[in-house]
Design a protein that fits this description.
Length: about 500
């Protein structure tokens, strides 16, 4: 929700310091459950000198203009016409293809698009993919809860046959059926990034014998290289055209975007009063620009990174316990020191650090910033410095009433879908750390030539490690280090994801 600004820069600094110290004393970390993750004291800011200068920052009109300037035409356009396939849609398919997808919203999204491509390769009828229960967010939302199924089927009708449910003869082929024993119709051995030939050799015979094949697990199981052009374009057609969110998600997303672009009212503390509807007055009010920040600083991310986030011994112990519980102590890159990890760009940016990055790039305290994230590790204490730097920061709770959010409450996939929708309608998207949401946004916004800022993690790690750096030098280094990281089109290389780098496979010059 929005906060009123203080009367002067000095007062702002005092408020910042007071609020941070107060939260340090009284606010516990957010956690999954008391039995899984111990509460620890909130951390103090790690870059207080930079924070003080950032609060006092003066952004020139030229810098404001530069940061909000849309991307120029880069000479590429979407190109996913799959009519170039060598053969038309066959009258009879080889059988039904089922896939079971784990992970969060964006990992599942990529798996859905891979399933569309695989159905084409195998000449199979795709059954609407089954989304596994997310073990981290405990979300059981189905494909039909998230995506417009009829739209999905209609967009792909000339490419592959898609059915919502299996016919009665195959109704036995359920997730429960495959979880109880080894089944001849289940493919469990698909390697990561398997080739088209692997599926033709190993899955086609099962389709021919049984009329159905179920692949579990399937996430990341289809190669990005050595594929025909029409298959690559079909993947992009599925991702960028066929996958449309259900109406209530689009409606809520439109409302949030409208309230960010036409901010008539201001919400009161405690969420009692929410911003008014503004549709009827849009023609009379200047359109505001806004940026979306995907914070990606949840407990899972923090624990898996093996980095130190300034919370002291208590925080380190809590993270160690969580790592032991979830991964039995196995943590990526845990053999490196914190300094080594940061110099390599392998530590997620804290809310404090991403706030300093945005301030250095030219976002001022009048910036309308939409926060897209799940529960932040450390709660309000962890994001207090970010909120002081950007007092007009909003999220779903500050922009929409409880009644408006009732259909997505407690459903991580649906909340992520709303954030995805708002992100695609923003002027600028920034992700604090690489991940599936980052990758999905980079690809989708590249496809539409929209500005997307990619933090230079290695540079920032080195800058933040330098405790003597002043604001002027920090700002210069940040601006220079991000000059070519704001949405400039990059070609996909071998082994890279088509969904992150859609050019040249799914884009044409012209």
């Amino acid at each position: 929700m929005m906060r009123s600004r203080g009367g002067g820069a000095a007062a702002a600094v005092s408020v910042l310091i007071f609020s941070i110290l107060s939260l340090t004393l009284v606010t516990p970390f957010a956690h999954a459950s008391s039995s899984m993750f111990s509460e620890v004291s909130a951390p103090k800011p790690r870059h207080m000198n930079l924070l003080k200068s950032a609060v006092l920052r003066q952004i020139s009109n030229e810098q404001k203009s530069d940061i909000w300037m849309p991307l120029a035409n880069q000479g590429w356009k979407p190109c996913v016409d799959s009519s170039t396939a060598p053969t038309p849609l066959p009258e009879n398919s080889q059988g039904y293809l089922q896939v079971f997808l784990d992970g969060g919203l964006n990992q599942q999204r990529m798996g859905i698009c891979d399933a569309v491509a695989l159905a084409k390769i195998l000449n199979a009828t795709l059954v609407i993919p089954y989304l596994e229960l997310n073990p981290v967010w405990k979300d059981s939302s189905s494909f039909m809860d998230i995506y417009d199924v009829d739209h999905f089927i209609n967009v792909l009708k000339d490419d592959i046959p898609v059915v919502k449910d299996l016919p009665e003869d195959f109704s036995w082929s359920t997730r429960e059926y495959y979880s109880t024993a080894i089944r001849a119709t289940r493919i469990k051995t698909a390697p990561l990034r398997a080739s088209a030939n692997w599926y033709l050799e190993n899955v086609s015979p099962i389709l021919e014998s049984y009329g159905i094949a179920a692949i579990a697990p399937f996430s990341h199981r289809l190669d990005f290289d050595n594929m025909p052009k029409y298959i690559q374009r079909l993947r992009c057609k599925a991702n960028f055209q066929a996958l449309s969110f259900v109406p209530h998600i689009r409606s809520l997303g439109d409302a949030l975007v409208s309230r960010l672009r036409y901010p008539l009212g201001q919400s009161e503390a405690g969420g009692v009063k929410y911003l008014n509807e503004v549709t009827e007055t849009q023609g009379k009010q200047r359109v505001a620009k806004f940026a979306v920040l995907h914070l990606r600083f949840d407990k899972d991310m923090a624990a898996h990174s093996a980095c130190d986030f300034g919370g002291g011994k208590a925080e380190k112990l809590a993270l160690a316990k969580y790592r032991q519980l979830i991964w039995q102590g196995r943590v990526l890159n845990s053999q490196f020191t914190d300094e080594e990890l940061r110099n390599q760009g392998r530590c997620p940016l804290t809310p404090e650090e991403i706030g300093l990055l945005l301030a250095a790039l030219g976002f001022d305290n009048s910036t309308r910033l939409y926060l897209a994230s799940h529960k932040v590790f450390g709660g309000e204490a962890r994001i207090s410095a970010l909120r002081e730097l950007f007092p007009l920061m909003e999220d779903k709770k500050s922009l929409a009433s409880v009644e408006e959010r009732v259909n997505i409450k407690g459903k991580a996939s649906l909340m992520s879908a709303v954030d995805y929708y708002v992100s695609m309608h923003s002027d600028i998207f920034v992700s604090a750390s690489p991940g599936n949401m980052h990758n999905a946004m980079v690809g989708h916004r590249t496809y539409q030539n929209l500005k997307t800022i990619r933090p230079n993690m290695a540079l920032l790690g080195q800058l933040f490690h330098n405790k003597s750096i002043d604001w002027s030098n920090f700002q210069k280094a940040v601006v220079e280090g991000h000059r070519n990281r704001q949405g400039q089109l990059r070609m996909r290389n071998l082994k890279q994801s088509l969904y992150t780098y859609p050019a040249p496979d799914c884009m044409c010059q012209g």
